[in-house]
Amino acid sequence: MNAIRGTASGSAPVPLSVLDLATVGSGHTASEALRTSVDIAKLAENRGFHRYWVAEHHSMPGVASSSPAVILAHLAAHTERIRLGSGGVMLPNHAPLVIAEQFGTLEAFAPGRIDLGLGRAPGTDGGTAAALRRSDRLREGADDFPQQLAELTRFLDDDFPDGHPYSRIHAVPGPVQGPPGRPSVWLLGSSGFSARLAGSLGLPFAFAHHFSAQNTIPALDLYRESFRPSAVLDAPYAVIGVSALATEDKKEARRQVLTGALSMLRLRTGNPGLIPTPEEAEAYEFSAMERDFVDSWLGNVIHGTPDEVRAGLDDLTKQTGADELMITANAHGGAARLRSYELIADAYGLPGGRG
To answer: Would the pTM count as exceeding 0.70?
Structure first.
């Protein structure tokens, strides 16, 4: 159970963690974005954040996290203690055996530190999902998620029953080779489907509050109501992803988060690109409809001075009863994202500060 439940540090009400998309800003490269991911992971470990997850997205120029397992292997080589995981792997995009092998390899690299967060959405548009899956039957992939999850779990535990077509197949690295163990399995969601499934299976659950805030409390309620104790958890454990950015100056925080809002607007209107600069976002002439979208989006982004961000995170914890907050920083440049995590750590008095 310790692999799942974290311990709050400093004055934080719950454990704090990091969700990373390895965002690529205009004028920067994927290499720079991925180096920033390493820097943030090191900072998060040194400052007492509990875990660091990487999200799977595809065909998005502003994101460099299409291959979580590859990124996590690199991060494992640059960290020693922090838990590392996927937030998440979109299981319908992959054969369960492949994911069992990838995350079994990660567990062998970093024993006892790996989380396998699983989602059923494609993490991209329909055309890209069809290219990933070699099929245009996307709805079937989502509907088959419980069966795919069961198959993946069997591979991770190496316990297909006798007579099963896969009973002689072993995911390696894995239990057939002896220790180490296997990664912790989580379900991710932005609606009630995975919340109910996670509860019924007694698994930990992570909800995407950062882009589905209106569904957060209903989904968490459903998860808790559906929960059945398991060998993994004796009580529910819910994490929420939250978009938050701290800067020394409140106006600068607004400038920075506007870049993420404009990027999301472009994505939602079929024109994805690199994360725009603050200057580009400020100069953009929003239509009334676009302004409504941006205002709504920014209403769910906690931003401002460190004290303001701390207060916002505290309020969100009280409102949702979340057991852990997983913070994602939306900004154009890596320096702003890195500095935000440092300021949030300072605001909560997390260990490793400069004074």
So the answer is: yes
